[in-house]
Amino acid sequence: MNNFLTLTVGELQRMNKYQILPSSLFVVAFWIAFLYFVDALFINQLFAMLIFVDASIMSIILVGAIMFFEKHEGTFRTFMVTPIRKSDYILSKAFAIVVSNLITVLILFAFAYYVKNIEMNLLAFVGAVCLVGLFHAILGFWMSFYAKDFTSLIMRSTGYMLIFVLPVILVQLQVIQHDWFQYILYIVPTQASMNVLNASAGLPVETSELWWSTIFLIGLIIVIFFVTLKKFDEFSQKEGGQ
Amino acid sequence: MFQIHNLTYRYPNEQEETLREVNFHIQEGEIFGLLGPSGVGKSTTQKVLTKLIKGYGGTVKYKGKDLSSYGKDYFQDIGVGFEMPVHFSKLTAEENVSFFKKLYKNPADTDELLKRVGLYDDRNKKVSSFSKGMKARLNFVRAMINQPTMLFLDEPTNGLDPVNARIIKNMIKEFRDQGGTVLLTTHLMNDVDELCDRVAFMANGAIAEIDTPKNLKLKGSERTVTVEYLKGDSAQTNTFNLDRIGSDETFLSIIKDYTVLTIHSKETTLEDIFIEMTGVKIDE
């Protein structure tokens, strides 16, 4: 087993032991209870929105929790004297979060299919969640560099939610309907995330918009990954060496 | 093994340099002790050598090559034992060890290591239930997990009872005897005296003195012997020069005619040297 796979499997094992994965599943159970009482007509729209919240803001918080456990227990230091690439260290955590996002998708998908008799394109959802989850997990990693403690990360995540997530949800729920506002959202990663998830749920998204959103997200993943990689040296010196 | 030449380092946001032209070398197959009071730069030096700190001045060579030229494979070669616990507390000892073991090309027999340090029977317990001493022993296992050739140990016997401290010290000596090299940082002078082949005292970010523990003690010795003996009902004390002790009539008469209570040479202890070199008491 190569080191990346070892790190990812180890991450998932620890997410389970540290109750991060069970907590995430508890939230899914809550959503299922909520969806149970929703009319089948609105399921697709809500389905995309719930997955959006899970893969965006939850990913940021989960990766933040992992980082703070490692800092608190000193294990971050021991990773820094282990023969692993820093890219493996970052990506293994991000991929573990994506796996957690995919588990959420599978559970919700099974609920929609078997309980509500609604068919959606699972493969499209898997692809969309990989993009949205990966971007936000790496973003969460980067945000944790600047957070002094977990409370500070929660504050930053709340700021991100208010500025980037909430407006997208309000547009999704058609509370905000101004055209100019929707144009602004074209350059917002959360709107691109919502678009790819909406398209996966079978909601109307123009092809050009879907292409733009997909390419935009891939570009953002590459940019945030290299920005995080660059900042990682400074962070590891601070946490491991000072 | 290591050649450190004019090593300097200043932490970001600090006005003064923590390391100021540190010079020393570590020979292959020796236990090298790095001593000094807190904040003097010994941990910083160790962090430079374990590549936890970059952006230092001067040169650090490992096996003849510049340290900065080594990539992640450097960590296949070294083992690092931290002073503080570095384990996933909600995982068992076995889970911790198994996880890190898989990241190395040449892993050690960890069952054997756990047995040696007395943790094998507790291997399936969560680390959070471990005592301070058990965590320290698991730290040592973690450091040895890749069969390193170079071992960095920071206070390896801290928090251990005498029996377990003896086990760890024996393992460190065995590691050295099998060709391994050790950089040991500790405040425990007994450990230094027993384990180290050479010792460097650090003061104010530089090396103040380097020598073998024996030479250091001899350098500071007074070359005298003090005899306490019973004369009548009272205890008397006399001090004699060691150099002419065999022909000193008074000394010979005391040991012949009186009951000797104690007899001590005035050999300096490493603790005395530590205080003299650094100007700081051990527990500071």
TrEMBL record, chain A:
Q: Which InterPro entries match?
A: ABC2_TM
Domain of life per record? Bacteria
Task: Enumerate the transmembrane spans.
Answer: 20-39, 46-69, 89-115, 122-147, 153-171, 210-229
Q: What protein is this chain from?
A: ABC transporter permease
Topology in the lipid bilayer is annotated as: Multi-pass membrane protein
Pull one GO CC term from this UniProt entry: membrane
Question: Keywords of this protein's UniProt record, alphabetized?
Answer: Membrane, Transmembrane, Transmembrane helix
Give coiled-coil spans as residue ranges: none
Q: Which PANTHER family match?
A: ABC TRANSPORTER PERMEASE
Where found?
Membrane
- Where does the ABC-2 type transporter transmembrane domain start and stop, copy by copy? 42-229
Q: Where is the signal peptide?
A: none
rRNA processing recorded as keyword: no
Q: Which GO terms describe its molecular function?
A: ABC-type transporter activity
Automatic annotation (TrEMBL), chain B:
Q: Which SUPFAM superfamilies match?
A: P-loop containing nucleoside triphosphate hydrolases
Under PROSITE patterns, the record lists:
ABC_TRANSPORTER_1 (PS00211), ABC_TRANSPORTER_2 (PS50893)
At the top level of its lineage, which domain of life is listed? Bacteria
Q: Which InterPro entries match?
A: AAA+_ATPase, ABC_transporter-like_ATP-bd, ABC_transporter-like_CS, ABC_transporter_ATP-binding, P-loop_NTPase
What keywords is this UniProt entry annotated with? ATP-binding, Nucleotide-binding, Transport
Q: Which GO terms describe its molecular function?
A: ATP binding; ATP hydrolysis activity
Question: Which Pfam families does the entry mention?
Answer: ABC_tran (PF00005)
Q: Which residues form the ABC transporter domain?
A: 2-229
Q: Which PANTHER family match?
A: ABC TRANSPORTER ATP-BINDING PROTEIN (PTHR42711), ABC TRANSPORTER, ATP-BINDING PROTEIN (PTHR42711:SF18)
What is the recorded name of this protein? ATP-binding protein
Which organism was this protein described from?
A: Salipaludibacillus keqinensis
